[in-house]
From TrEMBL:
Keywords: Aminotransferase, Pyridoxal phosphate, Transferase
Alphabetized GO MF terms: kynurenine-oxoglutarate transaminase activity; pyridoxal phosphate binding
Origin species: Pontibacter ummariensis
Entry keyword GTP-binding: no
The family this protein is said to belong to: Belongs to the class-I pyridoxal-phosphate-dependent aminotransferase family.
Recorded GO CC terms: cytoplasm
UniProt xrefs under Gene3D superfamilies: Aspartate Aminotransferase, domain 1 (3.90.1150.10), Type I PLP-dependent aspartate aminotransferase-like (Major domain) (3.40.640.10)
UniProt-recorded name of the protein: 2-keto-4-methylthiobutyrate aminotransferase apoenzyme
Aminotransferase class I/classII large domain segment(s): 29-377
InterPro entries: Aminotransferase_I/II_large, Kynurenine-oxoglutarate_AT, PyrdxlP-dep_Trfase, PyrdxlP-dep_Trfase_major, PyrdxlP-dep_Trfase_small
Spans through the membrane: none
Amino acid sequence: MISYPSSKLPDFGASIFSVMSGLANEYKAINLSQGFPDFNCPESLMQLVTKYMHAGFNQYAPMAGMPQLREKISLKTERMYGYRPNPDTEVTVTTGATEALNAAITAMVKPGDEVVILEPSYDSYVPVIRLCGGSPIYVPLALPDFHVDWGLVKRRLSSRTRLIIINTPHNPTGAVMTKEDMDRLANLIDGTDIMVVSDEVYEHMVFDDKQHYSALQQPLLRERSFVISSFGKTYHTTGWKVGYAVAPPPLTNELRKMHQYITFCTATPFQLALADFMEEEAHYLNLPNFYQAKRDLFYDLLRNSRFEASPSSGTYFQLVKYDKVSDAYDLDFARHLTKEVGVAAIPVSAFYHDKTDHKYLRFCFAKSEDTLRAAGEKLAVL
């Protein structure tokens, strides 16, 4: 009889996103769980992809990314954040932001290292830390607005802390870090060897006239951060899996060592199409208004229901508190909503290592107006 090796991730199964999307498909529910749009990317962007495919750009791209795209990323970064990274030594195109996160964490974390995680947190961070032999150190965000308690972060640091992972705008809560937050973080790690992974994939989804403040805008953080971005989020192309990382040359060098053995490179025609389409600056500059209108519609649809919510400050997610509707555990309530009501959401306990339940669900409003209205009508009568 074969003796199969034990699992390297025994505590991890299928992600909650796969589970809830599968349930939504099974029960033909409106899927506001997994974070993807139900509308298409711009037609002209798709035409650019086919243009480059037919022109023969279907072989391996350079490992670091097509030079045209890295140059456009550099120029855009300067426009948005006042810093122009060197496209050859500080910009790397990756197969989605998830791969960039994996490469950055893998490059930094060795057995015995500690990594500070702010919870609730996106689910791809911790498995990579564990696979590297590191230990996640969990710091809860403070309710009700899910702000960072920097005093608590400071108390969780040790001589073994290698990384702090931040995410702004924040998935799943929609909270947005401020310049003051970035300055506090910089002060905490000044004089240490601690590095930062700044997950900024929702950088263009900040609402109510607020601004996204990037780690690239804080001089000390810029010198020791991997800043991760996503074309999938910005251009409604999550299925293309194109992201990128900006980091100083020593960190980029280490990230690329990992990247070349994870995926080596990213699809060539997508990169060339995105490089051309980035000339259309209005797309990402108008994205806050585009998604704020969807946020406001979904929020208004629930305003007179028994659900409670404060409008999301960023991302395309809305947290909704349901304790006046049910006292069920959030995963059980999410399943009930999917099966019996016909709307799928993500239970926020899935973003905590110990499955903490604060009676919140996360809904994705990156959907058409018709989809949001249909979901709102089902939820408003509960």
